[in-house]
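re the bet — no i am not wrong, look at it urself. input seq straight from the record:
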Amino acid sequence: MIGDEKSKYGLYKLHCINCKILIFSKEKRALCSRCFTEVNDSDSVPYNPPFTKLKPKCLLVTLSFGSFDPKTYTNSEILHVGLSNSAGTYVYNFWNQYRADNVKDTTIWKSVINIDLKIELSDKEWDEFLEKSLTAQRNSDPKYHQIDNNCYDYICRAFNELKYKNIIWNKQNLAAEYIEGPIIELERFCKVYKIVDKEGESVQEENYNTRQVTLALCDICSEYILNDQRLKCTVCQDFDMCLTCYKSKGHEHKMIEK
């Protein structure tokens, strides 16, 4: 997620035009590890994590326990979902019981991934629907089950009651439509952040390489490559491949890990 300002866990995203290299850094400047050109303040763009403060009329994704922290997040975390009201003051969700959490009184919703549903209802209509749906589901499907009747089932039933997008919602298409993309983005950000944070611990502050990680561009898929997935051709000049492309397509020359 790119924003106008760097957030608490945000990084700066810089490009070295000479080398087609993307650099992530905690500072607004960095030194390209290939051409040793300084990439400075004017070239930097904030690169922020996908989690932010809660927003109104959104599908919310958060952690069931604790809060998002890119230094400790892993893909084994248990996620929880809910729906925010029109003012962003209450979150309607299902966890052991049907709840309308007052955001001021809970910590679970302090840091969330907001998914804008682009609801066409007025604020009043949306709030009334959330109350009505919560009450109806509490009466018809009262017993919580971690697998068979959980927070995702609650969202699906609410969407179906609303006839949202004229789709019959289930946990599979809910995840495919709204959850998987932001989580992939979250995992990508956390992986980069951990590398940046680790390098910052081992390099002196006065060095421009402090707290930065340099990514090369895959010459096959044109995606940036994390350091531990980069292969470089021993024959072709400046030819890089990501591990995924190499496994699926191969290359005529010997490749080495870079």
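see?? The helical segments are 123-140, 151-162, 171-202, 243-249. told u. also The longest helix spans residues 171-202. so pay up
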